[in-house]
Known about the structure:
2 copies of one chain form a homodimer.
Chain A: H1 5-19, H2 27-34, H3 38-50, E1 54-57, E2 63-66, H4 75-82, H5 107-123, H6 126-131
Antiparallel strand pairs in A: 1-2
The structure holds a DNA duplex (30 and 30 nucleotides).
Amino acid sequence: MRFQKTTEYAIRAMVYLAKHPGQRLSTRSLHESLDIPYKYLGRLMSRLAEAGLVSVEHGKHGGYQISENRDSIYLYQIAEEVEGLEDYERCILGFPDCSDEHPCALHDRWVAHRENIKAMLYETTLADLEEEPTKQP
Amino acid sequence: MRFQKTTEYAIRAMVYLAKHPGQRLSTRSLHESLDIPYKYLGRLMSRLAEAGLVSVEHGKHGGYQISENRDSIYLYQIAEEVEGLEDYERCILGFPDCSDEHPCALHDRWVAHRENIKAMLYETTLADLEEEPTKQP
DNA sequence: TAAATATACTACCTGAAAGTAGCATTTAGG
DNA sequence: CCTAAATGCTACTTTCAGGTAGTATATTTA
């Protein structure tokens, strides 16, 4: 009941980029700030760039920055790109034909929590995460 | 953001046993009723028996049944045995020193949902899942 | 134009979850 | 006592997330 490690990395990186608007940050600096394996992070950033979530500059002094406004990038977009959103449509017990009309024993209890998590993903932007005066650990 | 498949199997099997109190059910019959790979289910049931969640009879006409009262077995016990409960103490972004006092950007939003899920696991018994007139898919 | 520094691409390695298979062991009952 | 039917144990296989490594390519700048 958690994000894949790669999704954690992706959200970390996107949040960090959102905190440094207008700056182009290299994989090296993200690696050092966020403690994510350098080579693995490089491939991840390429994926995020290809998905259009960040813009990229090649060559010397290259790197990544948030592609659009921080308030137009939602958490679900990051999760979708990395691990997909299939889990949030899935029966909690894995029954293929579980549904509201034909629920498994845990369905009703689970769906309530699941919808709350979905709301978090679909309604929270990177800008929203900036608003609170929370320190990055 | 889901249970491991094996945890799904375990909860399915426990719920099914809880619906047939006093009956000793073989791996074969559980396999046929729940569509879980036969051999894999056999090993899983052994684990649940060793953990004390079900009682077991060997030999001909052997099988498993709920070990105690249905209302004294909580979902968290099943999840704990199969995949552990570490995820529910973990930072959603994987920062090792994230905490209430030193939160990551998502901490406060996530903890609310996480605690609700923990409550579901720690407060729901197999008997509770019986009470609602829901059909097993 | 050449060196430095960055991303992009490709191949490989590792560990764990999920699944398969065979044989040993236990028990009921004719 | 023997056989059928069940669990228990052990080993192997498959798949994929996560991680490592080397090289190609792009861009800045001295």
